[in-house]
Amino acid sequence: MSLFLFLVLVAVVLGIIGFVTHGLFYLFVIGAVVLAADLVLAAVRLRRGGRKHRLAR
């Protein structure tokens, strides 16, 4: 969970810096890509987390 929140924070900071600073639009794009990758990672973890895990005996 902390990795998810950290990546969201990084994406938001990169997006703000890239949007506000003239000539650094690529930071905005990188922030958007990081946010999209983070949402995909969260969806995979949420989908996989519902299964019961077998214990090896």
List keywords for this structure.
57 residues, mainly alpha, 2 helices, 75% helix, rod-shaped
Secondary structural class: mainly alpha
- Roughly what percent helix? over 70%
Task: State the low-pLDDT regions, or none.
Answer: none
Strands, total number: 0
Question: What's the helix-strand series?
Answer: HH
Number of helical elements = 2
Q: Which radius of gyration do the C-alpha atoms yield?
A: 16 Å
Termini Cα gap: 30 Å
Report the sheet-strand fraction. under 5%
What is the average of the pLDDT values? 79
Based on Cα principal axes, name the global outline. Answer: rod-shaped
For the biggest sheet, the summary is: none
Brief synopsis:
Helices cover 75% and strands 0% of the residues. By secondary structure, it is mostly helical.
Give your account of this protein's structure:
The structure is a single chain. By secondary structure, this protein is an all-alpha fold. It is built from 2 helices and no strands. Helix 1 (2-20) runs antiparallel to helix 2. The protein is rod-shaped, with a radius of gyration of 16 Å. The two termini are 30 Å apart. The mean pLDDT is 79.
Write the layout of secondary structure elements.
Blueprint: H1 2-20, H2 25-48
